[in-house]
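Order emerges. As here.
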Amino acid sequence: MKLQFDPPLQPSAPGPGGDVRYSMDPSGIHATLVDVAADGQSLTQAGKAARDSGETVADGFGTATVVASAFRSFWSGRDDVAERVASVLFRKADAVSTAAAAFAEADNGMSSAASAALAKLPANYTPHRRGDYRAVQ
């Protein structure tokens, strides 16, 4: 299968036998992954800011130690949610990048192997006569 470079991993029109073909746009995938990484970085920074704000709020209860303790208890399980989500985002983007690179490399390998195999085949064919089979000379 030879890749057509269209929008990222979009099915193309069905082929002559009705088979569905997929194509891949490496530059589109790269641009998408760069956007995801930027969003992940923004999410990480927002998460750190939220953690700092939560600590500031917890310290701002003054003499209301019971309220401060309750808030700290509530906040301690949630203060790193944005950073954990960003981490998942980065890991998934890395997996997509690895898969896309492997897919493109495999396609190039298959194309090279097919070209090499075809180059070894004899190119001269005997003329076809009615009732006879075509054969390689």
